[in-house]
Amino acid sequence: MNIISSPKDMQSFADQARAGGRVIAFIPTMGYLHDGHLSLIREGCRHGDEVVVSIFVNPTQFAPGEDLASYPRAFERDCLLAEGAGATTIFSPAERDLYGDGYQTFVALEKLPFHLCGLSRPTFFRGVATVVSKLFNIVKPHVAVFGEKDYQQLLVIRRMVSDLNFDIRIIGGPIIREADGLAMSSRNSYLTPGERQRALCLSKALKQAEAMVRDGVSGAADLIDAARKIITAHPDAVIDYIEIFDPETIEAVQTVDGPARMALAVKIGTTRLIDNTLLLP
Ligand code: AMP
What we know:
By secondary structure, the chain is of the alpha/beta class. The chain has two domains: 172 residues, HUPs (Rossmann fold, 3-Layer(aba) Sandwich); 88 residues, Pantoate-beta-alanine ligase, C-terminal domain (Pantoate--beta-alanine Ligase, Chain: A,domain 2). It is 39% helix and 20% strand. It contains ten helices and nine strands. The chain has a six-stranded parallel beta sheet with strand order 1-4-3-2-5-6, sandwiched between helices. Helix 6 packs across helix 7 and helix 9 packs antiparallel against helix 10. The longest helix has 16 residues. The termini are far apart. The site of adenosine monophosphate has 17 residues, from helix 2 and strand 5.
């Protein structure tokens, strides 16, 4: 497996791969890999000859006071895991190589970020869209794979790729969960054993909504209320949002009379967790 840190070297590598007719699949990550990331790498292997995984904790998507400094890192372990899942190249730039002195160019969407996570993290999607654009220009992929775990992010990337005419196919991968239902996340490592147990309230709330919709409940307010009850049963769980929305536009829906997405963000202690699911009547 190649390990590349310079953007110029990555671009030359991508040019050579393309000149040789090889298809480049790309999986951007912030590292501290888990089975969710590995499932995206395996999906990448189905589409590309070169499977490039980036590992970069992107400072522009963290607000002051968020967990940039403490974000978990394990580079050598990540390389082994990525290689085991089929990655052919790791791209791991230094911060100064992506954001040098005088850096001032950002990519911002005008509508999608003004919902869900974008409300409590107002600069987050600007940071994500910017770094993903930069990574696309460096890795030059034909295909890129993103997880549905970050559902709003997936919509933002699809929109950006369409709006800015990136010639890249975006593939969404399903949410990978622990055996007890907790969505895998690098941030789960922050949870104490007690918090880890209480964090199950996110997936439980979503599972209950799925079951209620299957049983014929369609009022979004009723579904959200029932989810809120499960979560607020834990005194150290603080809800950021629980929303049910159109899976394409992210506009809130009142009635689940077709496919809808339910998403939530909850702080367990000091750790902010997100999760979502498809509601199918
Ligand atoms: P991150 O390293 O958290 O920035 O995530 C990198 C990619 O992995 C993003 O496309 C995420 O949506 C995806 N991802 C994170 N957790 C999961 C999960 N549990 N299941 C599937 N994909 C995931």
